[in-house]
Model the fold of this input.
Amino acid sequence: MHLLYHNTLADPPAVQTIGPFLAGTRIAYFSMEMALRPEMHTYSGGLGVLAGDTAKSCADLGLPVVFVTLVCSQGYLRQEIDANGRQIEHADPWNPSEFATPLRAKVAVLIEGREVWVRPWLHVLSSPMGSRIPVLLLDTNLDENALEDRSITARLYGSGIDYRLKQEAVLGIGGLRILQALGFIIRKYHLNEGHAALLALDLLRRYPLQPDQVAIERVKFQLTPVRDACIFTTHTPVEAGHDRFDYGLFEHVLQGYVDTAQVRLIAGDDALNMTRMALNLSGFVNGVAARHAQTTTRMFPGYDIRAITNGVHLPTWAHPAMRDLFNQQFPSWAFEPEMMVRADQLSAERVWAAHQHAKADLITEVARRTGVGLDHDRPLIGFARRMTAYKRPDLLFSDLERLRRINASLPFQIVLAGKSHPSDEPGKALIQQIHDQIERLAPELKIVFVPNYETRLAGFLIAGVDIWLNTPTPPMEASGTSGMKAALNGVLNLSVLDGWWLEACIEGVTGWAIGRDGEAGHHEGGARVASAEDLYQKLEQVVLPIYHHDREKWVWMMRQAIAKVACYFNTQRMMRRYAAEAYIG
Done:
């Protein structure tokens, strides 16, 4: 099943050069991770998948953007689940030479007093519309470097806070200098999350602050040249998602790089907060959904934080059977997603047939990966995302007897997937707990956890399940995009009202809400109980009865979801907004 979109190399690696991209490229997009294709293990989850979809739409729209990320030749992690349901992490290596060309330019970043050399690999992303986008993958695995420095770009989000700071120095400082060394003339730098904020600090070194300028209004005025050049998109309302570094560590890793007193003015007095530094050094700041922008404003009052809701790259995530149907009815849908508003006119029989094709593909893939056979005629609930506490992957299992009773009268099945960060012990405990609950519910209820969630598996899941379940603790869901991909394929969302779903949910039309908006104000224990109860009521009284007893309404809702979600929640619309509001000027 081909999921990722026209990102094979435009030319054989041996003849690729950066020259064709220098003249017109004026925007640089920096992201710690980026999902370009399944074989390139340069991403961990939603942040990277969004960056990859963004790059594809930039290519489709012909936007003059160069993307900068880390090569991460050892990947993020390959997940194994042992006999006790515990996650075991392995390296997930890939060979950059199969998908990219090493460029000759090299720059040095002083890390712990040593010159660390950085070289870019060039990967070219091509659009069927004829335009191409360069992606630079930064690499420190060079003979010139000390052995300990060669591994800085090896493992995405590797262990240790010092390792993280070194990676962010290579991305932000090294990435900026690589662009200059290659000859790019960049007018705007787009920071996708705070990981690249050291780029703005490197720009700031050309406009040093006076230590007595402590009033933030005066600081912002002096920072105008840097702020005019920087755009910052923040993605997380979770405190742990905002990188903070002790100033002692900062001074050790980046010895003599910049006066710490100046950094404290813009990054916080107690610790170097990468998000706060990016906020102060960026002239355009946005959250990734309307609610997320409100939440971020409460977390960081005093900043003008706009909202540009995320989207997905439609041609990448449409199942081939759905893609064929769209091609026949709306030939320009891939480049004019507004056309998808007419999807409610599609033949009900053909939409159902295309979905059944996608469901059969998923069942085959699950059997291949796990040996578990799923029932084609039973509704299939899907839950797949990063396994961490605030996502509440265990909410569905709050009352096992209730699940048994529902299944006895309205049979269903569940497929789950997701990795937990190696340092997230509570997240890994949830994975083990879920495996225990799967055993306790067997054999009455068929549930399967598919290990090693990645973009290829995601493509099967978001198209092949019948119901896409999302249960985060509000307001901790910044946006979410997997539900958008599911809706594109006619899969109905059953989700907490948070992130993008607040904007897309039309109850009983595009899917269903779990709970009510405003639940975030409740005590967490009470909110969890209320969410679980509402989830069970919706499944038992609304969702499953419609699937089993009113197929005509179910397929009507499928067509409504495609039409009302895909026409708006796409990266074409998203990038047109960035271009008009942030890139121009």
